[in-house]
Structures are given as structure tokens and as C-alpha cells.
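#help-structures

NK: newbie question. if I give both the sequence and a SMILES, will the prediction place the ligand too? trying with pyridoxal-5'-phosphate
OV: yes, paste both and it writes out the complex. here, I ran yours:
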Amino acid sequence: MKYNKKIDELTKYQMPTKFSDQKNFLNCDLNESLFPIPKSILNLSLEAEGISGYPRNRLPLITQEIGKYNQVSEKNILVYNGSDSALQAIFEGFCDDETRVLTFAPDYTQVETFIRLKTHKIYKLIDPAPLSNESISEANFDDIDLVYFSNPCNPTGKVIKQEIILNWVDKNSKTLFIVDEAYFEFYGQSLAGQVSNYENLIITRTFSKAFGLAGLRLGYVITNENIINILDKFRNEKNVTNLAIQAGLISLKELTHLEKNLIELDLSRKIFYDHLDPRILTPKSYANFVLIKCRDSEIVMKELQKQEIMARDRSMLTNLENCIRITLGPKSVVEKVLSILNQHAI
Ligand SMILES: Cc1ncc(COP(=O)(O)O)c(C=O)c1O
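OV: that's the protein plus ligand as C-alpha cells.
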């Protein structure tokens, strides 16, 4: 049987599953929202047509609302069933055997499988000090066709300033820049308003993090109309579910819920940094998670599990030996996490 031999070289992206289905466990391992889901979404019920029918005219509706939320034209938005699907589509459309792709390290590892399925020519720009507050600011994009990085960065939570990114985009007009803004809402700064000014800038976004809809799968691309037209040619409009669209529409209508959670998360981040033992290394995070350096990450992971908290050991990533990433949520979660870290991470 013939198949794409590049599959043999892939490393499967592993979703942590251990304990995560146990009700009393706190899932602080995948940066999902830990805040309550609004009743209006919990009570959502699909009419028969929403179950038996494809999204049809609901897709333009959510596209319009996403445009308004980002203060860009709906012509600059393309909706997908999750931002991972959007990213995979981008690599599908803009990458072949000859494409030279640069990704940052450490960064979001899931995209590696999308890229490696298309090209072997993948290069890394390594953050020499991922635990410091300094972000990558110098880069050489000569001979690079495509660049991907997340901003804020998963797993460090650090950000690269807009002026730096725009300078890169401006000076390297033959290189396509994909900026993954999955954690935008926790940071508050976006390049969305810039997409029409550049031919080579794509932003991806999601409802999975700040909006708390990870299980429903809703994400989107913000880019110029030319790239939208390319991606739209092979996008399968049937892939976004009616339930996800309905939940997305409610989330955008009831933005006070999001705003309340963001204020609470801001407070949680502050409590975390104010009370974390200063001997524990951690970069300042602009996302809903923190990365911390432990003396021995295995010991800390075991302690967290004993206290029914799931976290993500990131030790295998570049320059992150003994580092754990933990999702933050309401104050009660942060207090529980802090007491374990201050006792066991040093
Ligand atoms: C940087 C980044 N991009 C994308 C995603 C995936 O988002 P979605 O649920 O929209 O596919 C994640 C999820 O952890 C992420 O960390």
C-alpha cells in the first residue's frame, strides 16, 4: 500500500489523558479555560436543523461577528473547526517538498506534525534563555519561505513586541509569517489590524482558550484577501459545527463574561508572581499559563498529581530541562498550585 512516507518520520503529538477524565482533577495541562462556562452556552440546544443540516448561512454570520470583534472586515476572516485546523490548512496550501520553514524553539509542538508532513526543510530559531524575560528579537530569514511562531509563546508565555514582528514582515516580503495568537485575549495586543498592510502576514486565533470552547472546536484566520481567497478554495465549510457557531455567537454577544474572566486571570497571574518563591525561575507570562523551572520536574509532577492537579512537563523541549507548564485559572487554583511549587520545586 502506498502512503506518504513522511508519516514514518513524525513524532505523534501526545494528548495527556491520564487522570484527566476524573472529575475532581484540575486540568492545568492543556491551557484550557478553568473558569465556569456561562449558562447561556451550557443551555444551548440545537434545533433539528442544526443537527441534520450543515452550517450553511450560519458560517457567514459567525465570520461577520468575528470581524466586528477584531475590528477588521469579514473579508479578512476565514473560520475553521479550531485554529489547529486553520494552521494545518495554511501548511497544506503554502508548503511543499521544497518549502523552507522556520519555527521557534521552544514553541507549540503540534504544528511540527503539520509541517513535517509537507517538507523536511524545517529549521529552528532557538531562544537561548527561555526562562528569562528576554524574547527573541534578532533573526535572519534569508532563504526562509515560511515562519511560524506563537505570540504569546506556548510554552513560555513570553511575547515578541509588535514593532519587531512588523519589522521582520516588512523587511522580508518573500517570507510568509504565520503568527499564532491563540492566547491573544490574555495579552491584549494583536497584529489583526495590520493584515491588510502586508502581503505576507497570517494570524491564527481560537475560541479554545479565553472563550473556553476547546471541546467545540472553533478557530479562525485573519489575513489579507488574497491569502483568504487561496485558503478558501480548499476549505471544507462543512467542518465547522452548528453547535460551535452558536456558542461562538453567544460568546461574542456576551463579552462581559470574557472580560470578567480576564480580570480574574490577571489577578491570578499577579498573585502567582507575588507569592512564588523568588528562587524559582519563571518568565513573565502574558498567557493563561506559567512555565516554571524545578529542581526536579518529576518530583513536582508527582506532588501535583497527588493533589489532583494535572500539569505538563516540558523537559523534553529545547532548553527547558526540568520545566513544567501550568495553566492558571481562578484564585483558588493558583493558591493550590503555589503551595505545592513553593514546597517542592526548589
Ligand atoms: C499556540 C497554540 N496554538 C493553537 C492551539 C490549538 O488551538 P485549537 O483548540 O483552536 O485548535 C493551542 C492549544 O494548546 C496552542 O497552544
